[in-house]
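In the design runs reported in the main text, the only information available to the sequence generator was the tokenized backbone. The following block is the verbatim input for one such run; it is reproduced so that readers can re-run the procedure and compare outputs position by position.
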């Protein structure tokens, strides 16, 4: 796991994510700090991971270097279903491996995760957007195609025409979508190396019979991608439908001043994942709560808290009364909070070091010695 700063120098994102992207051009929360430096709330995690990878000398670690993060991210977007200005991403980045095997491994990691959650109908789409060499040639072909349609494109896309025409295919504007409906796609113009890589990825996925669709229109919204790009799509998460997106970025580490290092990763939108889980009526398991409630009957509070301390040291999650409640109110509290086990400890129990442990769900009771905490732990854990 890697923990990243919430904001970084603006230049990191304009260089890393790319200044022809919507994210950089329109969506960044940028401000001047007290030293008049331009800072930006991270719109995503990859650029920060690469900066940290280089600053911390990870390029010399054994390859592949695999990092994961759980972050909030910020984009000034038109808020709608599944699209927020502050949202959360779970992401993975892997550095150093250039073959398609790791592309497949990352994709299968996601597929496995979705399977384990019980998600169905999340569809995997893959594409290749080539390397700078084949993209250069393709740009000429695309520009030729779009040349006569320039007047139909939005202002942003007209600017993209010169700088990065591939991004026109990703424009959300209806007029641009129409104008590019039959545009040539990069997948038909890959160089040999990129074609071999893409074939390799498909073969890896076919070998394990993981279903996917090749969608030559996926270009992704960020500039650093090369070769493999992929998305997991669903119908339930708003117009975009993308729960998770990622791809290879073989040139990014070098662009940021490091040695030539291939990289690949993805980020999963946590809010969109939760929407999808809800839409498919999937209940997440509850986080483990408290094991045992120690109720004090009479003036035994101090002895109960001491016992709680001993039990906590033995690894049990124990609650005691901290509100000076009556025994009846303590039992009500334990019931309301669904604490699985309760022990009532009065003067007799403390003196004899013996008490009844009761399972609140079944009502079953058994006698236990208070100085045999491991036995109590075994009872409580057995039922978990
Ligand atoms: P991205 O496609 O921009 O890629 O975002 C990844 C995921 O974050 C999206 O699929 C979506 O689920 C979620 N997401 C993006 N914007 C919003 C928003 N405004 N509201 C809610 N959810 C959102 C990246 O960020 C890349 N860094 C992924 C990556 C990592 N590629 C390689 N490594």
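Verbatim output:
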């Amino acid at each position: 796991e890697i923990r990243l700063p919430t904001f970084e120098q603006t230049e990191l994102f304009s260089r890393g994510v790319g200044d022809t992207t919507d994210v950089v051009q329109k969506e960044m929360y940028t401000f001047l700090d007290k030293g008049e430096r331009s800072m930006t709330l991270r719109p995503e995690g990859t650029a920060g991971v690469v900066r940290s990878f280089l600053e911390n000398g990870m390029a010399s670690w054994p390859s592949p270097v695999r990092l994961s993060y759980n972050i909030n991210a910020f984009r000034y977007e038109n808020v709608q279903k599944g699209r927020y200005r502050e949202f959360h991403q779970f992401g993975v980045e892997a550095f150093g491996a250039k073959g398609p095997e790791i592309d497949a491994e990352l994709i299968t990691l996601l597929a496995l995760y979705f399977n384990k959650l019980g998600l169905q109908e999340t569809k995997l789409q893959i594409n290749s957007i080539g390397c700078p060499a084949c993209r250069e040639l393709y740009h000429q072909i695309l520009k030729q195609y779009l040349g006569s349609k320039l007047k139909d494109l939005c202002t942003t896309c007209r600017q993209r025409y010169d700088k990065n025409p591939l991004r026109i295919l990703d424009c959300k504007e209806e007029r641009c979508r129409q104008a590019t409906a039959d545009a040539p796609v990069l997948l038909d113009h890959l160089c040999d190396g990129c074609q071999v890589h893409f074939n390799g990825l498909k073969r890896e996925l076919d070998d394990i019979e993981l279903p996917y669709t090749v969608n030559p229109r996926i270009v992704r919204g960020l500039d650093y991608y090369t070769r493999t790009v992929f998305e997991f799509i669903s119908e339930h998460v708003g117009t975009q439908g993308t729960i998770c997106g990622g791809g290879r970025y073989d040139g990014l580490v070098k662009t940021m001043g490091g040695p030539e290092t291939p990289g690949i990763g993805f980020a999963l939108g946590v809010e969109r994942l939760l929407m999808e889980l809800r839409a498919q009526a999937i209940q997440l398991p509850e986080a483990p709560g408290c094991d045992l409630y120690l109720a004090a009957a009479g003036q035994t509070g101090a002895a109960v808290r001491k016992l709680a301390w001993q039990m906590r040291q033995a690894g049990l999650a124990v609650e005691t009364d901290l509100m000076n409640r009556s025994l009846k109110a303590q039992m009500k509290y334990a019931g309301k909070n669904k604490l699985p086990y309760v022990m009532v400890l009065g003067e007799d129990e403390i003196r004899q070091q013996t008490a009844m442990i009761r399972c609140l769900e079944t009502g079953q009771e058994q006698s236990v010695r208070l100085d045999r905490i491991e036995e109590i732990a075994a009872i409580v854990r057995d039922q978990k």
